[in-house]
Amino acid sequence: MLKIGNISFSKYPLFLAPMEDVTDKSFRILCKEFGADMMYTEFVNSDALVRKVNSSINKIVIADYERPMGIQIYGHLIESMVESAKFVEQYNPDVIDINFGCPVKKVARRGAGSGIMNDIPKMVAMTDAIVKATKLPVTVKTRLGYSDDNKNIVEIAERLQDVGIQALTIHGRTRSQMYTGEADWTLIGEVKNNPRMKIPIIGNGDVDSGQKAKLMFDKYGVDAIMIGRATIGRPWIFREIQHFFDTGETVSKISIKEKCEFVKRHLSKSVEIKGDYGGVIHMRRHFAKYFTNIPNFRETRIKLLTAKTHEECVEIIDYIADNFTESC
Known about the structure:
Layout: E1 3-4, E2 7-8, E3 14-16, H1 25-33, E4 39-40, E5 44-45, H2 46-50, H3 54-59, E6 69-74, H4 78-88, E7 95-100, H5 105-108, H6 120-133, E8 138-143, H7 153-162, E9 167-171, H8 186-192, E10 201-204, H9 210-220, E11 224-227, H10 237-247, H11 256-274, H12 276-290, H13 298-306, H14 310-323
Parallel strand pairs: 3-11, 4-6, 5-6, 6-7, 7-8, 8-9, 9-10, 10-11
Antiparallel strand pairs: 1-2
Helix pairs in contact: 1-11, 4-6, 9-10, 11-12, 11-14, 12-13
């Protein structure tokens, strides 16, 4: 049974990956209701937290019903990462997660996210300093390595474990791959089955069905699976995967009408948290993913993605529910 700090999980835990501009509170509400076993905030810039930037502080406010919850921080300076870890303690997350995996150029080129994988001694020193600075469990999310020529995750995992992290999430791509190609779980399995490794190993990358999730658990022996992009426009994926675990059967696809009810609830929460305009703008990324592969949908899609008010969006979503009947 997986245990991180004082948190215990049942068999086959499913985690929601932290994703910038995606895993805000409105989205997490749905994912939790659909069965996510653990969730994380969007990743937060340590420098912004040290400067007490309100938009960053708002990201780390969590509710008890979301627990267990992790706050994920990133940065390239050890001192500000340590200070931000101390700062987020007052928001009482269940874990502090360090982002050593973000491949985005503006993050990585500064030596933050997966950019720090070019400097393993600094990566280890930063982790060591954060572990020593907080009483909370510290976990790490990273990748297989910086490039295909330098997949050094086995060494990294051992060294991070040695300085006291309590779990490690591995995305099965290198920084150079970004999100292209297929995730390679072979090295994730190698880390998990390394006799030196005692901490939980969480696998991440390309899991989008119950069949694939079960395969990854069985084949590679990971302690949990983290799901990221497959949840966008499909937060019920946690329910679908759990149904497969319980029954061995694939759940029927939901109808557009049922989907529209979920979308309206997501929209309402987004507006409640961010205000009418901000909540609607935030939802556009989700709208684009919620409604895909629907015949003769282009005109309606454009209307939805350009709507500016909550009321206008609801009217369009109700129209979708009443006029498009094909499951998607």
